[in-house]
Design a protein that fits this description.
- This protein is of the alpha+beta class.
- It has a domain of about 170 residues: Beta Polymerase, domain 2 (2-Layer Sandwich), CATH 3.30.460.
- Helices cover about 50% and strands about 10% of the residues.
- The protein has 21 helices and 14 strands.
- Helix 15 packs across helix 16 and helix 17 packs across helix 19.
- It is elongated.
- Bound molecules: adenosine-5'-triphosphate (ATP) and magnesium ion.
Length: about 425
């Protein structure tokens, strides 16, 4: 990507950005940087969202000032990141990311090699090489993510045809898709994320490159995959994202064991869990990644338990081995931090207890700190007819009931429970 582009400058009457939608703090930082003689612009997702009339999640600034220079200008500035040195400037509790223009290794003709490194698969590991604004454009992923906005001039700078692509509603890589997606395979997931969120199409050449390169996701470190999975599924458009990931053959690189259990019947537990997450986000209710993992891995877990039991293992041992295996194997693809593992296993462990509704356990279960998440999974299981919906309804009712009604519901369980004979004592080892 050595060909240099002449930028198109779009004046205020050629775009729809209203300054009132821009963070005052971001404007202040840009004024300060420009006052000190540097270039500074809003860039990336915030410009894209402003142009589309959406509220940006956050505001990022790109500048030719180097991190140390940025730090010396702002009191509330912290330099972060090992892979990329970035400045975080905090004003009035708002954190604005200020990044120095960077270049991709292929644009950096005169850099020494220890600052960049490309793996056998063509993936760029480190690209902390400073450059010009033009270099900074070309290292970005998609044309719609590479627009710059200067709040003082109120002008948009477009080097790569991003404005046209925004109008056409298409996600197009900057440069050759095969090269850009190989360089960073996570961009395949990002394309889907933006396409689902904005209801844009992915450019056909990027789609065919994705079909060719999807398996490169196997080489992305699981920790980075986790970051991306959370962005994919906690952005408010999880269901659409999931459907596109499946359509483009990417889901199998995120959740291979889940993919194996999908039999084409919809809705399934995964799609219901993702739709449920979208609804919760819409209602401003909290969402936790552990719940999603618990739901997405539930079917492969069940398949595994059955396989072990079919092989003659007792159910308790089968459960314990299969749950440990499920998180361990999944974590080879998408990291699962220990704190999530505990929650996932708790949500799973509560399922049989919620199903069996042993009268003496009910109050304890209701007070369990994972009850809500486990109940939510139980509802989804009822929805796919894995369990009797009467059980799920019973748990819904008991949460809404007062103390007296609760006691009566619990008594009702005793009456309707099938009479069991006295449990036989386990044979002692000695016997
Ligand atoms: P969102 O609204 O989801 O935050 P975003 O476009 O701001 O979307 P970020 O991940 O915050 O996405 O990244 C900010 C910008 O940095 C992007 O718009 C893009 O220009 C650039 N960028 C981020 N990740 C990559 C990547 N993997 N490859 C190339 N450019 C990237
Ligand atoms: Mg962003």
């Amino acid at each position: 990507m050595t060909n240099k582009h002449l930028p198109q400058i779009i004046s205020p009457d050629g775009h729809a950005i209203s300054l009132s939608a821009v963070s005052d703090n971001a404007i202040k930082i840009i004024q300060e940087l420009k006052g000190a003689g540097y270039e500074a612009h809003l860039v990336g997702g915030c410009v894209r969202d402003l142009l589309l009339g959406r509220i940006p999640k956050d505001f990022d600034i790109a500048t030719d000032a180097q991190p140390e220079e940025i730090k010396s200008l702002f009191r509330g500035c912290r330099l972060i990141g090992r892979r990329f040195r970035l400045a975080h400037v905090r004003i009035d509790g708002e954190i604005i990311e200020v990044a120095t223009f960077r270049t991709t290794p292929s644009c950096a003709d005169d850099v020494d090699d220890d600052r960049t490194h490309i793996t056998d698969h063509g993936r760029v590991l480190r690209d902390n090489v400073y450059g010009t604004q033009e270099d900074d454009v070309l290292r970005r992923d998609f044309t719609i993510n590479a627009l710059y906005f200067d709040p003082q001039e109120q002008s948009v700078t477009d080097f790569v045809g991003g404005m046209i692509d925004l109008e056409k509603r298409v996600i197009r890589t900057i440069g050759d898709p095969l090269e850009r997606l190989r360089e960073d395979p996570v961009r395949m997931l990002r394309a889907v994320r933006f396409a689902a969120k904005l209801q844009f199409d992915i450019d056909p050449s990027a789609l065919s490159a994705t079909a060719e390169l999807a398996s490169l996701l196997l080489h992305v470190p699981p920790a980075r995959m986790l970051d991306e999975v959370i962005k994919l599924f906690h952005g408010g458009y999880a269901l659409r994202t999931y459907e596109m990931l499946r359509e483009y053959g990417l889901f199998r690189y995120l959740f291979p064991f889940t993919e194996q259990c999908l039999d084409g019947v919809t809705p399934n537990l995964s799609s219901l869990a993702l739709a449920n997450t979208d609804t919760r986000i819409q209602l401003d209710k909290p969402v936790i990644p552990a719940f999603l993992f618990a739901c997405l891995l539930w079917d492969p877990l069940q398949a595994d338990i059955h396989k072990l039991q079919d092989g003659g293992m007792d159910s308790r041992r089968a459960w314990s081995i299969a749950t440990a295996d499920a998180v361990r194997d999944q974590a080879l693809h998408v990291a699962i931090p220990k704190r999530f593992v505990l929650v996932i296993k708790d949500i799973w462990a509560l399922q049989p207890l919620l199903e069996h509704r042993s009268p003496k356990n009910i109050n304890r279960l209701l007070a369990n700190k994972r009850f809500r998440a486990a109940y939510d999974l139980l509802l989804l299981r009822a929805e796919v007819n894995e369990i009797n919906s009467e059980i799920a309804q019973w748990w819904t009712r008991i949460q809404e009931a007062n103390q007296q009604e609760r006691e009566s519901m619990i008594r009702g369980l005793r009456v309707s429970a099938p009479k069991r004979g006295r449990r036989r004592k386990r044979k002692s080892r000695a016997a």
